[in-house]
Amino acid sequence: MGLFEERAKRTEWFLEARFGMFIHWGLYAIPARGEWVKSNEKITAEDYDSYFEEFNPVRYNPKEWAKLAKEAGMKYAVLTTKHHDGFCLFDSAYTDYKSTNTKCKRDLVREYVEAFREEGIKIGFYYSLLDWHHPDYPHYGDRQHPMRDEESFKGAEHNWKNYVEYFHNQVRELLTNYGKIDIMWFDFSYDNERLKGTEFEHMSGETWKAKELVTMMRELQPDIVIDNRLGGDARKEEPDLHAGDFVSPECMMPDGDALDVLGRSIPWELCLTLNENWGYVRNKAWEYKSVENVIHMLVECVSKNGNMLINVGPNAKGEIPKESIGILREVGEWMKGNSDSIYGCGKSELEKPEWGRYTQRGNMLYAHIYDRRVGAFRFPGLEGKVKKVRFLEDGSELRLVRPWNGEDHKKDAFVELENAKLYDERDTVIEIELKS
Ligand code: FHN
Keywords, A to Z (predicted)? Predict the structure, then answer.
């Protein structure tokens, strides 16, 4: 079996799941100015580590997080085990810069794994390849290191081999000590303009020793699904070993399905924020996406064969912001009656309709109606192809009709929608069982 076929088998559950929770949490929740605060404000290690001394999420209860994810209809979750600041939310034997050495003395990752597994939610780990705490990660001249312009670091020696060994060891720990892990979400490869010609010019692929890393991971967790940010090319006829199992567009909706060089669909997942920030920020209530927007983004992804991973950024006390909770609970309400049009669905061969989107699973076609239009509701090109039609949410029958004013649309199928307004203005889903 080639890598393309192996990838397809490994990602079967992933394509069924479609919807996940991203969780960005760490020391940066205290400054509450986003997870890049150390880089953006060029904070020294000494100043940033005051947050390490202070960190004590007294209200951290991942059981509540897991219940929210379940209520929202999410089938998997991805937690930052280490973000770019290098702080580890797990009890690593390779560093003291970890949650078990803070006031809380807790292995936050272990509690997350246990709580989400308890709810039957697949477990994902985000792991930053960048590390702004580790002494052997390039500082001066790096594209985003907090000390990138600090003259005192100019010419500093970095034992890169030591850093690569460090992070490979941590990945081994994460895939050994916490049971079955379903997703590894690495972040991210990049180029260093100012370090052209040095070993740090291309922070990608073999600079990370990516092939060795993936080989080790597959030995430990053969079925684990990996993202594409180690730097390999997932679109080749025979994908690179380190290309991962899905491509990961971020905060930008792709025009369509992700295709490889042979035009074959490859798994993809859109990751996005709820409020324009990954890590916790305060007082940004007005920046939260509407429930309608979140539903439409999820439908859009599935209509193009994609997944959606939407983010929550818990605060320094360990709580998911109430705005996020409210939105995800309402999305969950919609999912309760309509998840058949999401889970295991993908793109339809039918042209995108003017009134909304189609998702499809086998001969079950789901019409996501955002715009009521006028009169009998028209499904272009479906005349003679429909076995039965139901409102998905309550399973009630809708009857096919040939309206007096449909003369110009003989190839189209019509159903009578009694009222002038949609049952659910955000997205009313009609289930169409096709004849074949
Ligand atoms: O730099 C990170 C960012 O903080 C966040 O983790 C996102 C989530 O995908 N990834 C990187 C930016 O692309």
Answer: Glycosidase, Hydrolase, Signal
Atom number, ligand 1, closest to the C-alpha of residue 130? 1
Pocket, ligand 1, Cβ cutoff 6 A:
35-36, 187-188, 250, 271, 278
DSSP 222: T
- The closest of 345, 381, 379 to 364, measured between CA atoms, is 345
What is the per-residue pLDDT across 262-311, written as a single tens digit (0 to 9) for each? 999 999 999 999 999 999 998 776 789 999 999 999 999 999 999 999 99
% of residues, the chain, pLDDT over 70: 100
Q: Whose CA is nearest to atom 11 of ligand 1?
A: 187
State pTM to two decimals. Answer: 0.98
User: Which atom of ligand 1 is closest in space to residue 278's alpha carbon?
Assistant: 5
Please give the residue that has the higher pLDDT: either 21 or 1. Answer: 21
CA of 200 relative to ligand 1 center, distance in Å: 20
Distance CA 49, CA 67 (A): 32
What structural domains does the chain harbor? 3-341 (3.20.20.80), 356-434 (2.60.40.1180)
N-terminal to C-terminal alpha carbon distance within the chain: 31
